[in-house]
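TA notes, week 10

Several of you asked for a full example with nothing omitted. So below is the full record: structure tokens for the whole chain, then the designed sequence directly under it. When grading your own attempts, check the secondary structure regions first.
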């Protein structure tokens, strides 16, 4: 056990288009869902972990492209949250993007089964906790 807590940096991106947001359904299998925050079977924004020597913006753009085939042109920080579970701790920086291009594809179908657009006022029930916090902050116009 480390003497001090070790937190990783994570990112999530709310891709916002005409009142709808893009969510992906994580695999029910914990191994395939690839979530240290135990998000299997939940709907999530595209995102992931920041790699060593990668900026937050670079990580956001890379993760979205790898997962959805969408290229983000302009992104802004909208939220910062702590994600603490019994065996992991992440500080998640949430971005918002309304300027993107490309054809939506499910690029990692073992991890994210499908991507769907949802109206912000009609979201699915099982939402990944970091995504849920980002949506709450967006609605309340809060950063943290």
């Amino acid at each position: 056990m480390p003497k001090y807590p070790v937190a990783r940096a994570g990112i999530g991106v709310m891709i916002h288009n005409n009142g709808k947001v893009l969510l992906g359904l994580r695999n029910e299998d914990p191994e395939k869902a690839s979530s240290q925050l135990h998000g299997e079977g939940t709907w999530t924004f595209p995102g992931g972990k920041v790699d060593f020597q990668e900026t937050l913006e670079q990580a956001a753009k890379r993760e979205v492209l790898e997962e959805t085939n969408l290229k983000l042109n302009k992104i802004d920080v909208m939220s910062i949250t702590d994600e603490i579970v019994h065996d992991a701790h992440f500080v998640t920086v949430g971005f918002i993007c309304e300027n993107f291009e490309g054809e939506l594809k499910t690029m990692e179908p073992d991890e994210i089964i499908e991507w769907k657009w949802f109206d912000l006022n009609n979201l699915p029930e099982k939402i990944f906790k970091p995504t849920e916090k980002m949506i709450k902050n967006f609605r309340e116009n809060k950063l943290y």
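The longest helix spans residues 56-68. Use that as a sanity check on your answer.
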